Amino acid sequence: MPTPEEFNALMINNLVGLIGMRLTGIDGQRVTSELTVRHELLAPNGFLHAGAVVTLADTTCGFGTLANIPEGGSSFATIELKSNLMGTAREGLVICEANLVHGGRTTQVWDAVVTNATTQKIMALFRCTQLIIYPR
């Protein structure tokens, strides 16, 4: 199984690298990550932009999918996602924990919880479905 450091190296020079996401743990069907809130990630209203929260959750689930691709699979793509945003942050650290709910041959379903590390309040609940891609 790839290490968090190996996955973090894949984030250089792309969207998740630009926002500063860091993978902190991979344990089988559980993945954790974090994001430091900074001014560039805030929406015009002064709160963490919802897109940054969704990017954190989707990417955390995506790395979980990548670590759990069935034999013969070569990649994956998010085909559905949903998030319920219930809180936000203006500063500090945001953490994400994703867990595999369904690990099939053609799809995986992941749930993630995004939490404000300072207040320990849940900011978002997230679910996505990943399509497993096989070579032709």
Task: Map the helices and strands.
Layout: H1 4-9, H2 15-19, E1 22-27, E2 30-37, H3 50-67, E3 75-85, E4 92-103, E5 107-116, E6 122-133
Antiparallel strand pairs: 1-2, 2-4, 3-6, 4-5, 5-6
* First and last CA, distance: 25 Å
Low-pLDDT parts are none
For the largest sheet, list the strands in their spatial order: 1-2-4-5-6-3
Helix-residue proportion: 10-25%
State the secondary-structure class.
alpha+beta
Account of the 3D structure:
The chain has 136 residues and is of the alpha+beta class. The chain has helices spanning 4-9, 15-19, 50-67, and strands at residues 22-27, 30-37, 75-85, 92-103, 107-116, 122-133. A 6-stranded antiparallel β-sheet has the order 1-2-4-5-6-3. The model has no long low-confidence stretch (mean pLDDT 95).
